[in-house]
Amino acid sequence: MKRTGSEPVTARSPLRMRLWFSVWGLVWAAFGTTVFALTGRTGWAVACGVLCLAIATDLAMIVRHLRQGPHYQPGRAIPPYEPPRTPGTPRTPPRGP
Q1: What 8-state DSSP symbol labels residue 87?
Q2: Largest CA distance in the chain
Q3: How much is the average pLDDT of 34-58?
Q4: Within 13 Å and on the Cβ side, how many CA atoms surround 31?
């Protein structure tokens, strides 16, 4: 099946929504780590701690992309990027001999 649109290639991540989901997940993972550590369930505390680190890393990347500006989080006035050209397709038409 041939692709008819440019969405899969030029899809933009909703970074602000991901930011808030990451904050929410970080709060719950930190809460879980604390509760499991206090109740003596070391395995679950370690699992929540690892999850906390993964969420914190994702949160750092999201903030980095947001600070890089419209390339990563364009506004509504910026049109989608053109899909990349297939290998072997020249960017400019070839000139005559």
Answers
A1: T
A2: 80
A3: 96
A4: 6
Nearest CA-CA partner of 54 in 17, 16, 28: 28
Burial of 72 (0-12, 13-18, 19+ CB in 10 A): middle
Mean pLDDT of the 81-95 span: 61
Q: Is the pLDDT of residue 96 over 80?
A: no
**How many alpha carbons lie under 13 Å from residue 62 in its C-beta half-sphere?**
17
| pLDDT > 80? residue 53 | yes
The residue type of 30 is: A
Spatial separation of the C-alpha atoms in residues 33 and 28, rounded to whole Å: 8
Residue 82 CA to residue 66 CA, distance in Å, equals: 21
Alpha-carbon distance 30 to 53, whole Å? 10
The per-residue pLDDT of the chain, averaged, comes to: 79
The pair of structure tokens assigned to 23 is: 């904050």
